[in-house]
């Protein structure tokens, strides 16, 4: 087991009792009079994963001494929103494998996946109302809207080999990091934290989420498909100009840049081994990991504003060990 997996497990163990309550809430709120809705939703949720977003909300609550029952409800809400984005993502990206098994769209078809994703979004908004807080509604509504904008931005950037680092970061901060940010901010809000602490929690979430996605993009060229549970080279097949490719084009020779650019523009994985070698040879992987390290350090600096306790220690460790992630 890797050091990063051990650290994640420590964080999960710390909130294990809370996560059982969250799982019970998820199971209860998946009930629907339409059998296919529950079947598709349970299929993707049962696939597992680290569930970092609800875990993040619970860890922040723990760090700030919050015992509100609403933490279970809102942790389930962020998991529903995340699951809805996965259902829609896999349809848009035409993905066939996630977390080591067939995607929901591969099993149930695209229409069912899109519509059940819509159900999860709408159910999440029903659950937000239970919190009885306009501020909670604002945070989650804004996050959901920004995530959707990020999805559209990514679609617009498909097969665009001219995308630069700023454009890449804009997409992942909207599409991935925003829900991490919202999860951490909600924990602070439930705890009644002052504005500075709430802002620090939001900064932690955004930086952690950004680092998480940057490392995910590294693993598309430096990971193990069996361990990761997805097909390596999927980003290239989808025409995504991720940071390893952007840097490889900048750092490589004219011929290397041409090969990478052509693969992004055509979505061809025929030259994937050669491109993976270019990404390594040019130092693009190291540069990308360094960019993730910068984001992880921002998360660590933000978490140091929280009270010193075992929950805060887990938040610090999650950020510091993220760079060892291999799946």
UniProtKB/TrEMBL annotation:
Domain of life assignment: Bacteria
Organism: Ottowia thiooxydans
Cofactor: Mg(2+)
GO molecular function, one term: all-trans-octaprenyl-diphosphate synthase activity
Record-linked PROSITE patterns: POLYPRENYL_SYNTHASE_1, POLYPRENYL_SYNTHASE_2
Keyword field contains Cell cycle: no
Protein name as annotated: Octaprenyl-diphosphate synthase
InterPro entries: Isoprenoid_synthase_dom_sf, Polyprenyl_synt, Polyprenyl_synt_CS
Keywords: Magnesium, Metal-binding, Transferase
Family: Belongs to the FPP/GGPP synthase family.
Repressor in keyword set: no
Residues annotated as signal peptide: none
PANTHER family tied to this protein: ALL TRANS-POLYPRENYL-DIPHOSPHATE SYNTHASE PDSS1, GERANYLGERANYL PYROPHOSPHATE SYNTHASE
EC number: 2.5.1.90
Top-tier EC class: transferase
């Amino acid at each position: 087991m890797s050091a990063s997996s051990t650290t994640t497990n420590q964080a999960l163990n710390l909130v294990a009792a809370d996560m059982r309550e969250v799982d019970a809430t998820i199971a209860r709120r998946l009930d629907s009079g339409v059998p296919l809705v529950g079947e598709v939703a349970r299929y993707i949720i049962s696939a597992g994963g680290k569930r970092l977003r609800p875990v993040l909300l619970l860890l922040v609550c723990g760090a700030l001494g919050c015992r509100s029952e609403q933490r279970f409800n809102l942790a389930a809400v962020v998991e529903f929103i995340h699951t809805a984005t996965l259902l829609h993502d896999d349809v848009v990206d035409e993905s066939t494998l996630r977390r080591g098994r067939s995607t929901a769209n591969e099993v149930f078809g695209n229409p069912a996946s899109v519509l059940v994703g819509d159900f999860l979004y709408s159910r999440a908004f029903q659950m937000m109302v239970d919190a009885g807080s306009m501020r909670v509604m604002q945070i989650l509504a804004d996050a959901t809207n920004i995530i959707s904008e990020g999805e559209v931005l990514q679609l617009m950037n498909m097969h665009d080999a001219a995308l630069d680092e700023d454009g890449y970061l804009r997409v992942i901060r909207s599409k991935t990091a925003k829900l991490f940010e919202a999860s951490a901010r909600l924990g602070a809000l439930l705890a009644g934290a002052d504005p500075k602490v709430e802002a620090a929690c939001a900064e932690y979430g955004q930086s952690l989420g950004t680092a998480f996605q940057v490392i995910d993009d590294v693993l598309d060229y430096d990971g193990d498909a069996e361990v990761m549970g997805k097909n390596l080279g999927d980003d290239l097949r989808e025409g995504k100009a991720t940071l390893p490719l952007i840097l490889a084009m900048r750092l490589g020779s004219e011929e290397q840049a041409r090969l990478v650019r052509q693969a992004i523009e055509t979505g061809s994985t025929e030259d994937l081994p050669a491109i993976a070698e270019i990404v390594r040879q040019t130092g693009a992987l190291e540069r990308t990991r360094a960019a993730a390290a910068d984001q992880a350090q921002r998360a660590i600096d933000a978490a140091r504003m929280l009270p010193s306790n075992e929950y805060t220690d887990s938040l610090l460790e999650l950020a510091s060990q993220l760079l060892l992630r291999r799946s």
